[in-house]
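Why should sequence recovery work at all? Because a backbone constrains its sequence more than one might expect. Tight turns favour small or flexible residues, buried strands favour hydrophobic ones, and helices have their own preferences. The token representation captures these environments compactly. In the example below, the structure is given first.
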């Protein structure tokens, strides 16, 4: 295992194509192409913690050779292991506040992740960890066994690029929300209201609908357009919902929703 800590001052030279795709469905593949200019990377993803006070990891983005089904299945299996979960939360919590921490790793024989790596034909992983006031996340980059171990030069080049992609994943979260936090119609705040789940049961229909939009990652302006309301009215409904639910921010609302499903 190899660990490095960097300040968050990497230039975005050569990353214009990735920046242009940050809010589109092509972001993942474009990021992989960019990273592979340094060292071929088969897959990448990110684990997100909306609220570090009540940490719950969510697989928020993934892209690459492994199918969505197997990527999600592997992630669920790993997050179901309490030791792995605690380790990931600790790594995110211990990340520097003014930069990122980079970790190069492959699972030893007795690690439960070894079977997942072997099945997916992955040889090693590079991960980037960061946090802010209330949330944090890990982005991880998987090297296929067919490409062999990275050389020192490839790894050095890759460590100049992964903090940039990591930052763009964070930007994507801010713009459209994490993919795994964009819930289906059966998994929305409105559904929790209808099922009389504590807290959500007290919401009015409009307050629940505004929360639905918030969980989908929409801004106040986007919610206003979607629900045909004024932005002032949207803000009023949000604040009423926050008071009833005992939360103070969108991050806390997401964490409460995850705990209430």
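From this structural description, the recovered sequence reads:
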């Amino acid at each position: 295992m190899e660990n490095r800590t960097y300040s968050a001052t990497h230039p975005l030279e050569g990353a214009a194509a990735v920046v242009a795709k940050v809010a589109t469905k092509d972001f993942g593949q474009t990021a992989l192409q960019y990273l592979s200019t340094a060292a071929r990377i088969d897959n990448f993803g990110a684990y997100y913690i909306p609220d570090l006070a009540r940490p719950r990891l969510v697989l928020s983005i993934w892209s690459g050779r492994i199918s969505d089904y197997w990527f999600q299945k592997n992630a669920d299996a790993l997050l179901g292991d309490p030791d792995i979960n605690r380790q990931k939360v600790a790594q995110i919590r211990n990340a520097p506040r003014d930069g990122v921490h980079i970790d190069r790793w492959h699972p030893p024989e007795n690690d439960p992740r070894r079977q997942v790596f072997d099945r997916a034909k992955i040889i090693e992983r590079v991960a980037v960890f960061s946090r802010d006031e209330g949330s944090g996340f890990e982005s991880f980059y998987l090297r296929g066994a067919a490409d062999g171990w990275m050389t020192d030069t490839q790894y050095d080049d890759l460590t100049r690029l992964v903090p940039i992609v990591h930052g763009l994943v964070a930007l994507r979260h801010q713009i459209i929300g994490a993919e795994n936090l964009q819930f289906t119609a059966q998994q929305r705040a409105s559904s929790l209201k209808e099922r009389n789940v504590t807290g959500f049961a007290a919401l009015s229909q409009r307050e629940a609908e505004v929360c639905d939009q918030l969980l989908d990652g929409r801004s106040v302006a986007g919610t206003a357009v979607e629900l045909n309301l004024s932005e002032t009215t949207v803000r009023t409904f949000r604040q009423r919902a926050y008071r009833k639910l005992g939360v103070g921010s969108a991050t806390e609302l997401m964490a409460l929703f995850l705990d209430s499903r």
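A few observations help interpret the result. The longest strand covers residues 122-131.
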